[in-house]
């Protein structure tokens, strides 16, 4: 998990290990994702396919090509800041 320098600089190895274990506990394994050919960057199509196969509501990304799509089927493609806003909005506050 911490083989990526950007992650290693922000998360201690022990925390990264716990995070990985937790993700593994709740992850959905996709054996055969559908073929998807809609991203402006063909290398990003697998993310759309996995999101579709996993029945995701959101695909959170900073990738400009993916964000330009805004939506894939019923999946909303949003930047991290938008997801943080959704997660921190108080129910019934109308914010």
Sketch the topology as an H/E string, one letter per element: HHHEHEEH
Structural class estimated from helices and strands: mainly alpha
The overall number of domains is 2
Task: State the low-pLDDT regions, or none.
Answer: none
Description:
There is one protein chain. The mean pLDDT is about 90. With about 100 residues, this protein is mainly alpha-helical. Helices cover about 40% and strands about 10% of the residues. The chain has helices at about 5-10, 15-25, 45-55, 65, 80-90, and strands at about 60, 70, 75-80. The protein is globular, with a radius of gyration of 15 Å. It has two domains: about 1-30, no CATH class; about 35-90, no CATH class. Strands 1-3-2 form a three-stranded mixed beta sheet.
Relevant terms:
95 residues, 3 strands, 5 helices, mainly alpha
Structure summarized in a few sentences:
The chain is mainly α and 95 residues long.
Spell out the blueprint of helices and strands.
Blueprint: H1 5-8, H2 13-26, H3 45-53, E1 58-60, H4 64-67, E2 71-72, E3 75-78, H5 80-88
């Amino acid at each position: 998990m911490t083989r990526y320098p950007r992650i290693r600089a922000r998360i201690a190895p022990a925390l990264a290990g716990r995070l990985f274990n937790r993700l593994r506990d709740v992850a959905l394994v996709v054996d055969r994702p559908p073929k998807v050919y809609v991203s402006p960057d063909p290398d990003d199509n697998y993310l759309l396919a996995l999101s579709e196969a996993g029945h995701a509501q959101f695909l959170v990304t900073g990738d400009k090509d993916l964000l330009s799509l805004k939506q894939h089927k019923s999946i909303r493609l949003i930047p991290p800041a938008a997801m943080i806003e959704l997660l921190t909005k108080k129910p019934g506050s109308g914010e």
